[in-house]
Amino acid sequence: MNITVKDLLDAGVHFGHQVRRFNPKSKKFVYANLQGVSVIDLEKTYNCLEKAYAFIEETVAAGKDVLFVGTKKQARDMVREAAVASNMPFASDRWLGGTLTNFVTIRRSIEKYKNYLRMESDGSLDKMHNKESSAIRREMTRMKRNFEGIIDLEQMPAALFVVDTRTEAIAVAEANRLKIPVVALVDTNSDPSLTQYPIPGNDDSIKSIRVIVETIMDAAQAGQARRVQVDPIQSRTVSPVVSAPATEEQVPVSDRSSSADESVPETFSTDPEEK
Q: Which terminus in the chain has less CB density within 10 A, N or C?
């Protein structure tokens, strides 16, 4: 990773919620309670972020997709930008219930949306009656809000990256039901046990969200870079084996392929942001 514990400190990742909103299950990630605010142990945050980074990179390098989820106002734009930059699917405007647990039906609706887009591009909508075309355009506006980030998602994602598990409780519940690993930025008012790769940190501050989202984006991009690398040995065309004359003993020939080895690659601010 290209960040340090100091970068996390400067971004205010260590500011948790007020003590009265504290979730007991997040206790293991809390360093202390100062001025009525839970302070997160950034050493533990950094270690968790490293594990999440390695997992995301390996998942993407294996040719699988990670679904970025962040619909709260502070995270919406950053999640969309990070997902687009790393060529990953995303849900930033709203989480459509059943996106995972009712994936087949969602795909049918997406195909309907794609058909509308084709009709718009080839001018078919303009040839329809005004009332009918207006109804379709209104439906397309709604569909765009729901399907914009998952329109190219042909199969179930291999993992989810979530900002704020409380806001995205339905998405996390669907992933857990289907045993899809969840990487999440988890604040002190949330339950980290609902995620397989919790990243304890401030999920309300824009600076804090940005540093975490950009790190996960870097992991996805690193995985993409490894995904597109082509091993010259694997891409080599093997010439057909010419069989020996019938009078000679036939020896079975087995093709061999090899692949290159891949390597996976105490002072707090006294002015905490109001939670």
A: N
CA dist 14 and 46 (Å) reads 11
Model pTM score: 0.79
> Three-state DSSP class for 231?
coil
Q: Is 211 helix (H, G, I), strand (E, B) or coil?
A: helix
Q: Show contacts of 114-118: CB within 8 Å, 24+ apart.
A: 114/151, 116/140, 116/143
Q: What are phi and psi of 162, to 5 degrees?
A: -120, 135
Q: How many CB atoms lie within 10 A of CB 220?
A: 25
How far, in Å, CA of 216 to CA of 86, rounded?
A: 10
Residues 6 or more apart in contact with residue 48 via CB below 8 angstroms: 197, 198, 199, 200
State the chain's maximal CA–CA distance in angstroms: 91
| The Cα angle at residue 147 between residues 146 and 149, in degrees rounded to 5 | 115
Instruction: Give the start-end residues of each E strand in the chain.
Output: 15-18, 30-34, 37-40, 66-69, 90-91, 159-163, 182-186, 197-200
Under 8 Å CB-to-CB from 62, ≥6 apart: which residues?
A: 158, 223, 227
The whole-number pLDDT of residue 275 equals 56
Return the DSSP state at 159: E
